Amino acid sequence: MREEVLATYLIETPWELETAAEVMAGEQSTGTFTAVPGETDELRSRHAARIVSIKRLETVAQPSLPGSMPPKQWNGRYNRGEVVLAFPLHNFGPSLPNLLSAVAGNLYELQQFSGLRLTDLELPASFGDAYPGPKFGINGTRRFAGVEGRPLIGTIIKPSIGLSIEELRGMVRRLALAGIDFIKDDELNANPPFAPLDQKVAAVMEELERAAEQTGKKAMYAFNITGDIEEMKRNHEHVIRHGGNCVMVSINSIGFTGLAYVNTFSEVPIHGHRNQFGYMTRCPLLGIDFAAYQKLCRLAGADHLHVNGLDSKFYESNESVIRSVQGCLQPMFGGYATMPVLSSGQSVMTVEPSYKELQTYDVIHLAGGGILAHPGGAAAGVASMKQAWEAAMGGISLNVYAAERPELLQAIEKFGGSHGKG
After folding, report:
1. Which among 60, 68, 77 has a CA at the least distance from the CA of 114?
2. 139-153, 235-249, 375-389, 408-422 — which is least confidently predicted?
3. pTM of this prediction?
4. Can you tell me the distance from the alpha carbon of 321 to that of 316, in angstroms, rounded to the nearest whole number?
């Protein structure tokens, strides 16, 4: 029995769903717009993608995307449906870049479609053999951070751009002494000329080590090593030489192959940032759903993966964020999971709904402005986020818990009408 990849799509088309599905299967395997010599029945039996199922949904009067070409005999409606295709693994092998060429490729450009979205993937065991997935995941991250039984509380360096090395040093010192679990570079700030990565790493690690001597706790810092292929390896080596405990990459900037490459040599958890993901997913009838995307990220080695946050500053619905968290925690090959990262507009006000809806504390909860803009300073901001999680996990009202905790009370007064930025 041949190994197959199952790809699920949401499609919209002025054609009959069965015809559209046949076009998809042919375009992405053995067929083209017309018959060609060599496309024999025997070849098709071995290499053609097959239609597994078609589920008819609603019809609509207007196309979601421009550029579709209806058939000559057409009723003026656009059909929506869920299509599952099976691709023979031997067409491309257990290769992430070539998998994407098969299951996505030219599909988005076909005139038969006014909407097409890859919504899920089922991958055979061969992918698990070829790609080991995260080296550290949730348990390894907790060991590095020294945090058990609650979320990792973290923040993002803000302002994202412009801090000198000495200004960054002071911010890291305050946060580390406040007992923060996790700090990350902003995705906009990797190795800029105004603050080169080698200088940044040296300054940050000096402050983290000094704070650890005083507090007994060494915060995890995700250095943004995003860059060209060999540059990322040099950046990683520099982080390790200075005793760093986390690196970060912008997955959509370096691609799944770049992420998998970093995973071959990484000695610390890889913090996967999904910036640019909006252009893949914001249109409901275009791109790729996070359910499929996160599986590829995890295969390639992301130990942490951003999922946005509840009640965030971005467009994404809470329901979508909840599904994203659940996807990251769903075991894959060998049982591994990736730690979801809640971010975007987070503060003490988003803690209780997050815990209630997600039913897990296996997350990194990042609050940029929600910590750094606290009226009592960054230390009070860190304390307030920890206190908010204590209240949520203990089933205690936020306001009741804040009565004897001034940091939490100040945060409620600051962010009660709006959430933090970042």
Report:
1. 68
2. 408-422
3. 0.94
4. 7
